[in-house]
Amino acid sequence: MASKVKIFSCSASKELAEKIANSYGQELGQVELQKFSDGEFTTSFVESVRGCDVFIVQSTCPPADNLFELLLMIDAAKRASAKKIVAVMPYFGWARQDRKDQPRVAIGAKLVANMLEASGVDRIMTMDLHADQIQGFFEVPVDHLFGSTLFAPYLEGLKLDNLVVAAPDAGGSKRANAYAKFLDVDLALCYKQRKRANEISGMTVIGDVKDKNVVIIDDMVDTAGTLTKSAELFIKHGAKSVRAICTHAVLSGPAFERIENSVLEELIVTDTIPLKQSCSKIKVISVSGIFADVIKKAISFESISKHFVFANQ
């Protein structure tokens, strides 16, 4: 007899979770969050999850409460005798801390993986990890989905002539190169030097962008400093237009103001993180259909390879 599927949401991803549940074909499950006066909080399921396959949707964007709420929900499901517990994490926070790149620093992504496993999770579903190797931090299955499933058709639909795909830095060259190969267009690179995090000391363009329509590809946009400066640099080098595609709209600090005042034609993002405010240049594409389909296929043990449009190019 097949297990009953129930989909729940934590606080940070309520709207996206409702879309996923609707796409799956059922109502979102009921949970309760109780907060104490000192800031401590506790979570509980309003309905029974005994023997069920439980999917808990939560992007672990800041603050850290979002991560801890997910951990509490997983623990509650385990103690309520759920058959299987899957953490659906459209945005995996702390992913930028994926290695020890200087002395005496933490590897935050590995620590988060350890905490999720300790809480009792059986599977992880996520999208566009900042570093692919984070999958190896887990001893449970990880379904690593790609925003290219949505973005590639969108780009093809624009029918831009003289298209060039660009990476905003050397670290994003592999991702941008996959798009360039799939679309059969040239690749450009914006090489940057940093003095410290979120502060750029110098940038230069590698590749020909003159009279081209440039599309910058990245996994996330945070303060938008690199993104908007890259766009300006491409325009200075003769680009006809510049767009950007970033899966995760972290958008902190002056990001919205920078994007609104930038030379970007548009910034295309997903709803893995809810937008803090509106912006005329930002277009949002929902990932709800992809996650709903992957949940269905996980339950029926079907292949999900169709969602890896060109991940291995």
UniProtKB/TrEMBL annotation:
Segment forming the signal sequence: none
Keywords assigned: ATP-binding, Cytoplasm, Kinase, Magnesium, Metal-binding, Nucleotide biosynthesis, Nucleotide-binding, Transferase
Alphabetized GO MF terms: ATP binding; kinase activity; magnesium ion binding; ribose phosphate diphosphokinase activity
GO biological process: 5-phosphoribose 1-diphosphate biosynthetic process; purine nucleotide biosynthetic process; ribonucleoside monophosphate biosynthetic process
EC numbers, comma separated: 2.7.6.1
A Pfam short name: Pribosyl_synth
Record's catalysed reaction(s): D-ribose 5-phosphate + ATP = 5-phospho-alpha-D-ribose 1-diphosphate + AMP + H(+)
Domain Ribose-phosphate pyrophosphokinase N-terminal as annotated: residue spans: 5-120
SMART domains: Pribosyltran_N
GO cellular component: cytoplasm; ribose phosphate diphosphokinase complex
NCBIfam families named in the record: PRK01259.1 (NF002320), ribP_PPkin (TIGR01251)
Entry protein name: ribose-phosphate diphosphokinase
Gene: prs
